[in-house]
Structure formats: structure tokens, C-alpha cells
UniProtKB/TrEMBL annotation:
Record-given protein name: Putative thiamine transport system ATP-binding protein
Domain of life: Bacteria
A Pfam family it matches: ABC_tran
Keywords linked to the UniProt accession: ATP-binding, Nucleotide-binding, Transport
GO MF term (any one): ATP hydrolysis activity
Organism placement in taxonomy: Bacteria, Pseudomonadati, Pseudomonadota, Gammaproteobacteria, Oceanospirillales
Cytoplasm recorded as keyword: no
Domain ABC transporter: 4-209
Protein's UniProt keywords contain ATP-binding: yes
PROSITE patterns on file: ABC_TRANSPORTER_2
InterPro entries the UniProt entry points to: AAA+_ATPase (IPR003593), ABC_SmlMolc_Importer (IPR050093), ABC_transporter-like_ATP-bd (IPR003439), P-loop_NTPase (IPR027417)
Amino acid sequence: MTEHQTLTLQEIRIALAGKTLVEVDARIAPGEVLTVMGPSGSGKSTLLALVAGFLAPVFHASGRVLLNGFDLTGLPAEQRGIGLLFQDPLLFPHLSVAGNLRFGLPRATRDRTARVEQALAQIGLTGFGDRDPSTLSGGQQSRVALMRLLLSAPRAVLLDEPFSNLDTHRRREMRQLVFDRLREAGLPSLLVTHDREDAEAAGGRVIEL
Ligand SMILES: Nc1ncnc2c1ncn2[C@@H]1O[C@H](COP(=O)(O)OP(=O)(O)OP(=O)(O)O)[C@@H](O)[C@H]1O
């Protein structure tokens, strides 16, 4: 279990061609999901890119991103320990379902096979470990992507329209699973969505860009 963290977006300002696109100042508590909403082009994905550490150089950004007071602002993406979940589950097609989950585990993890079996059981996919990800339904793939993310022990999570590829029923199930898991793990998260029901299910504050 990861130490509980607070994610702070301190006086963030992102500008494009001299014009302010995004201004945010927020502190996200452990287990809290802060939802970011706003029209297309308002800078939601750009804000996530800044927090993750891969903001395109055309943008000018100021402010700081802190995890439990530790300044991430100058760190490259791979050193930030931030997990990402997108609309597309982005499973590795050349790895089995179990291989995708194993990939999430930090290198020093012991009992890897047992951890993967346990993870499969937690998402209702016992017996699916040897399958090729493309043979899974969209909802099953989403669950594998979520579990791969959680196994990687992130310190914070960014979600960009993570449910928008799922049908209504699967979306409800997946929302519940994702938000329960993030709360249980005590992870601060930032959710970008167009869907009010996502924001309600997330249960945290909502900011509009
Ligand atoms: N690499 C880039 N170079 C130049 N402009 C960009 C780049 N990426 C995004 N933009 C512009 O920045 C603005 C914000 O884009 P962004 O993708 O953050 O919006 P969004 O709120 O996530 O939109 P959507 O809801 O459609 O996903 C848009 O005007 C977009 O055209």
C-alpha cells in the first residue's frame, strides 16, 4: 500500500500564444477525486498533461505541482509516479492479460504470479490471464487497465474521459469500481469528463474551466 498523498496544484496558470487558457489553484486530499469540466478546447487535457509532465512546448506554464509538499514541477513524467487512465484502455497487444498486469508491478515485487492471480480475481477475470487482450470485451479491457494502474502503486491518478467508450451499464459498473478503488487506495485523483454523472459518482469537488 502506498503512503497516502496530497496533490497540490499551486497557482497553476497555462497560457497559449500569450493568452491564459487555464488557471487552477487546488489541493486534492488523499482519496479525493477532483473533477474538471468545461467545453471542448477549454484546456482540460492540457491541465492533465501539465500535471503528468508532458505539456507540449507551445504552452507557457507557471505555478507548481506538489505531492505531499514535494515539488514535481521540474521532474520528467516517468519520475513523477503519477498513474494515467484514458478513454482507450491501451493494453499491450503483444502481452497476455496476465502479462499486462505483471507489467504494472514494480520490479522488486515478490510473489508476482500470486499478485497477478489475486488482481484477476478482484476484477472478476479469474481464468482470463492467458488470453490475448483483444479477445476481451471493452468493459473487461477497462478493468484490466485499471488494475494494471493500481498494481503500479501510483502516488496520484489522472483520468481523462475514462468511461466514455463504455455503454451505459458498463460505465456505471466501471465508475463504481474505479472510484471505490481510488478511495480505498487513498489516492488523490483528477478526473476530466463531459459527463455530469461521472462528476456526481466521483463525489468530490468540481471545477469548471
Ligand atoms: N500541441 C498543441 N499545440 C497547439 N495548440 C494545442 C496543442 N494541444 C492543444 N492545443 C490547443 O489548446 C487548447 C486546449 O486543448 P485541450 O485538448 O486541453 O482541450 P480540452 O478541454 O481537453 O478539449 P476536449 O474536451 O475537446 O478534449 C485548444 O484550443 C487546443 O487547440
